[in-house]
Amino acid sequence: ALATSDLEPRAATTWSAGTPVPYAFLAAAFERMSNTMSRIELTQQLCDAFRCIMESTPEDLLPAVYLVINRLAPAHEGLEIGVGDALLLQALAAATGRKLALLKEQYRQTGDLGDVAAHSRTTQRTMFSTPPLTVRGVYHEFLCIARASGRAMQEEKKRRIQKLLVSAKELEAKFLARALQGKLRIRLADKTVITALAAAFVWYGDAARGHAPPAAVRIESSTLLLKRVYNECPSWNRIIDTLLQLRDIDERLAEHCRLTPGLPVLPMLAKPCKSVAEVLTRLEGVPFSCEYKYDGERAQIHRVADGRFHIYSRNCEDHTGKYPDLAAQLPRALRAALADAQFILDAEVVAYDRDAKRTLPFQQIQHRARKNVLLDDIKTRVCLFAFDLLYLDGRSLTRCPLAERRRLLRDTFQVVPGEFMFAESSDLIDGEHIQEFMDEAMRHSCEGLMVKALDGAHSTYEPANRTQNWLKLKKDYLSGVGDTLDLVPIGAYYGRGKRVGWFGSYLLACYNADTETFEAVTKVGTGFSEEQLAELYQQHSTHVLEAPRPYYAYSEQTRPDVWLETWQVWEIQCADLSLSPAYLAGMSHVQEGKGISVRFPRLVRIRNDKESEEATTSEQLVEMYVAQFQHATRAEEEEGSE
Ligand code: ATP
């Protein structure tokens, strides 16, 4: 827990009020934070930095927040800051007059382009002094770099990066290079940023009113409020604008920053379960409902004020251009009385055979382009299976129980066979019925069941949260770990025998959200077809790194032949989880000196809908490991008592 004294501001500004915040201020704060181990201390430092900025130059707070989280805009705008190593190295060579080969060698040795950039600056004498970098100036340049397009795009990016680096002092160069590479490596998870911002605003508001330092409990409740608001309205532009006007954090913030059609939210997620008995135990005393778990792609559909539909993926990417067929089908599904309604719908898009009236495997739509799909080119039809309604005509429904949201969903839409259907559901709750319903779902080519709390306080819709109130029960994984894992290839080993010429196996990692590292968890060499091995080799060969990223955690025993960028997520099925000193995932969480590894992994599919930071987390692996152990003990006890 945070104590008030932990969050007392200490930093001091070095610029006059109202003038642009120097980027050097932020870079110095980043440097301090990267040397800080304690999470509370880290939060404190960030809170200080935010407070200094909001008190002197509030208009720089928004660009500062974006630079801290190393993003440029809300996720659905698709603005990516990441620039390839090759381009960065070229820009650095041009900015410093150093030889490219030398920089490459330094990068290979240190594994950190930030350090290479910082070092290059200190050894170079500049003839002319350039104006100092500012927070708003750097943010603006990053935006221009991300938006650069057309044939001269690479040149334009390089020119802008070079310009930034020429003006940068040592620490500034370090964090500019890291930011452009896509990783600041100051271990700032979203929750730290939210806590620091909430604390800074509580201080800011109280100081303005001449109040005594705020109580820790007020900081905690404000953090919870800000987190809830951010989950429903994931736009820092809107939140910070409102906070600066309110000069405080309270319920008015939630009123101003609400769920809005056109602004996608991260979807609610489910916890895995391994047996019907486990479902019954976890939801004891809570009314619940089972739904088919369709094998398709999550879609959040927004109808905005001008009547148009926007379709967003599981990670808030804009998929409207991927599904022109869905946009054409949707008006037919709206009931006449609500034909103009604005709404936010949560659903699964599933490939569908209209003649045979049945769903098809997900692979049928997996290869659709992400944008600019033309209606006439579409071969595989899709049907939308709707399961939730989050917003209807000016009203957010997330706080309503699922039973009510479902009722409103059915009042707003109607079934259009093969185009729009409601997820098949059953509210019967004894074990035998769940098993029967599961069998029925399997006969309809579903992956299993989703089990959801139906009524009462437990059954609200929690954007971005993985809660106990949604459970997933997948047929294939009823024993073992209860779910597949989503892991990121970070390295590869050359193939032997029949696999010569390709990578024969890959080193996979999970994501540690607290430390922002990718922790090696297993090697996989099974589940690939020959064509797939060749295709993967081709794809990954263009993502080979000169050196492992400093945020890869691995042991020497598992060192791969080549290191890879973290650009893909693989769904991996496995027999079970085990403890191993060779893998660093969840190191020492279960047993001192041992990490968690995966036994008998095999590739199920590539998850194009997930970013590498959305891979299975070390925390989830630890949870799964513990659950697996408890499950085994329970099974033994049951066997013993028979
Ligand atoms: P996770 O991060 O939990 O692994 P995931 O995207 O890998 O998420 P799954 O574990 O397969 O997904 O299970 C949840 C997904 O199931 C949802 O994101 C959604 O796409 C899909 N789904 C299918 N039918 C339903 C349903 N009736 N209710 C909710 N989700 C459903």
Automatic annotation (TrEMBL):
Biological process annotations from GO: cell division; DNA biosynthetic process; DNA recombination; DNA repair; lagging strand elongation
Keywords: ATP-binding, Cell cycle, Cell division, DNA damage, DNA recombination, DNA repair, DNA replication, Ligase, Nucleotide-binding, Nucleus
An example Gene Ontology molecular-function term: DNA ligase (ATP) activity
GO cellular component assignments: mitochondrion; nucleus
Top-rank taxon: Eukaryota
Lipid metabolism among keywords: no
Broad EC category: ligase
EC number(s) stated in the UniProt entry for this protein: 6.5.1.1
Compartments in which it is found: Nucleus
Residue span, ATP-dependent DNA ligase family profile domain: 375-512
Catalysed reactions listed for this entry: ATP + (deoxyribonucleotide)n-3'-hydroxyl + 5'-phospho-(deoxyribonucleotide)m = (deoxyribonucleotide)n+m + AMP + diphosphate
Signal sequence, start to end: none
Family: Belongs to the ATP-dependent DNA ligase family.
Protein name: DNA ligase
